[in-house]
Amino acid sequence: MARPDLFLAQPQSATLEAALAERFTLHRGTAPATTRAVVGGGSLRWGATDCDRLPALEIVAIHGVGHDGVDLDAARARGVRVTTTPEVLTDDVADLALALWLALERAVVANDRSVRDGGWGVPLARRATGRRVGIFGLGQIGRAIATRAAPFAGWIGYCARSAKEVPYQRLPDIAALAAASDVLILAAPGGAATERAVDAAVLDALGADGVLVNVARGSLVDEAALVSALERGVIAGAGLDVFADEPRVPAALRALPQVVLAPHQGSATREARAAMEALVLANLDAWLEGKPPVSAIA
Questions:
Q1: How far apart are CA 102 and CA 152, in angstroms?
Q2: Family, per the entry (predicted)?
Q3: pTM (2 d.p.)
């Protein structure tokens, strides 16, 4: 029996591609009309036109948790299942959020650079213990960040679409959260509802002693406003794992010493990537067997 056609919308690891090749006929670059499955990453852009080009399409399997670039309504209307890989990367993204925050507060990157250049004396850094931490988005990742921050944060607040049963203070909007926080950590999903949620007004509210950490989506931040705020000292620094136009990072951000940059590596651990790949395959295997996918969102 011929193997179903699968379109690799974005390159995957050699391990995952090899496993997919055992189950499917893989296509890159152009998807044939007989394509029944699509695999892409969290930055995949897939809309109604894409679905219409592939009349045999039945499933879009995302290797990641982000799906703001996928038109779920269009997929549902055409009977196309959409799956993601939730939960298995929660701890790793939360760990990175704390790492970026601590690297900012203690000037770890700047100090490393100084020592490598033969220096020793460096400006004093800032104590992380006791800082007020605001988390925008309190889903699984946001809660994991809060759990990690709780032992030494002076206060934890959050902003989310609904109240959660947690011992943290809920603020009505992101501007109020920023005003109450020393550290603003972004963990909300992307999409129209959160696009440029961090604008000039929010950065002003965060203040000259505040820092921003983004492990969510680059679309949540007005990058031009962020660069301006950093250059003018409106906020003290930023730790960024995601950007508006990846992999292109604005030169102005790369030039600022009070910014810690990472290449969208929240899930980049051996353990998380192995679990994500296994879940992609589990979703596709279930579909091939005529069963409901393991982690479908549409």
A1: 12
A2: Belongs to the D-isomer specific 2-hydroxyacid dehydrogenase family.
A3: 0.93
Question: What is the arrangement of strands in the sheet containing 35-41, beginning at the earlier edge strand?
Answer: 25-28, 5-8, 35-41, 59-63, 81-83
Instruction: Render pLDDT for 34-89 as a digit per residue (tens, 0 to 9).
Output: 999 999 998 899 999 999 999 999 999 999 998 989 999 999 999 999 999 999 99
Residue length of the chain? 298
pLDDT in tens, 190-247: 999 999 999 999 999 999 999 999 999 999 999 999 999 999 999 999 999 999 999 9
Q: Coil, helix or strand for 245? A: strand
Which of 175, 185, 11, 177 is closest to 98 using CA atoms?
185
Is 78 within the bounds of a domain? yes
What is the number of structural domains in the chain?
A: 2
Distance CA 156, CA 56 (A): 48
Report the C-alpha dihedral over residues 93, 98, 103, 109, rounded to 10 degrees. Answer: -10
Q: Is the pLDDT of residue 2 over 90?
A: no
Residues marked as catalytic: 217, 246, 264
The whole domain housing 105 covers 90-261
Q: Is 97 in the same domain as 185? A: yes
